[in-house]
From TrEMBL:
Molecular function in Gene Ontology: spermidine synthase activity
Tree of life domain: Bacteria
Source organism per UniProt: Paenibacillus rigui
The protein, known as: Polyamine aminopropyltransferase
Keyword Cytoplasm: yes
Family, per entry: Belongs to the spermidine/spermine synthase family.
Amino acid sequence: MELWYTEKQTDNYGITAKIRETLVTEKTDFQDLAIVDTVEFGRLLVLDGMVMTTEKDEFVYHEMVAHPALYTHPNPKHVLVVGGGDGGVIREIMKHPDVEKAVLVDIDGKVIEYSKKFLPSIACELDNPRVEVIVNDGYMHIHDHKNTYDVIMVDSTEPVGPAVELFSRGFYQGIYESLKEDGIFVAQTDNPWFKAELIQNVNRDVKEIFPIVRVYCANIPTYPSGLWTFTMGSKKYDPLQVDETKIPDIDTKYYTPRLHKAAFALPKFVEDLCK
């Protein structure tokens, strides 16, 4: 008998993958959590029926959350990750030796626990001495830490359940206040095929707060539609003004110095959403 995992990404569309083994299923205090081992994508972390990360394509998302912002800011010493309990963004941040401290705040400690156990290649830097892991509400952490961080990265689920507030204007205002005077933030902002209105709303809200706002894209096969957007808000530094010849080659599989600016060249229909 064959077992298949299917994510219904819209009412009329989904993806499916053949399962080798179900490693864990649990209803945590905040969401339904599962980790399954698939033939095509390796182990999948699934929250509330949505694929969060997979062993095969995780590097795209995690690299593109971390490196564009860290190479735009000239001196990122203190970095915050909201969400991201699987540890992938933290792993990428740790490739930057100038970062003195990275704080990860995830509301669901079970995501951190099971990622360490079943996704060690992703969660491998969570015990790094430069990393502080806090199980708490990221929204409240932002509001309790003014003028604290050089870079803030929002690695959230889609805007359902505990992540709804992480797509609100009040949250972006809190991020602005939590950043230092030349700070940068970046957030995953879903896909333009099925969530065009979300991208428009986020872009509008962030533009009302940050003087520099840029949207960029990456290809992530297991995310809805495969085309994913990220929104960067900056108080001072423009990612399009970065001298790519000064970006060092680091151990990545997707992000490169040449891709830094290229990722901001949007397809016309995505560009139109950001006007």
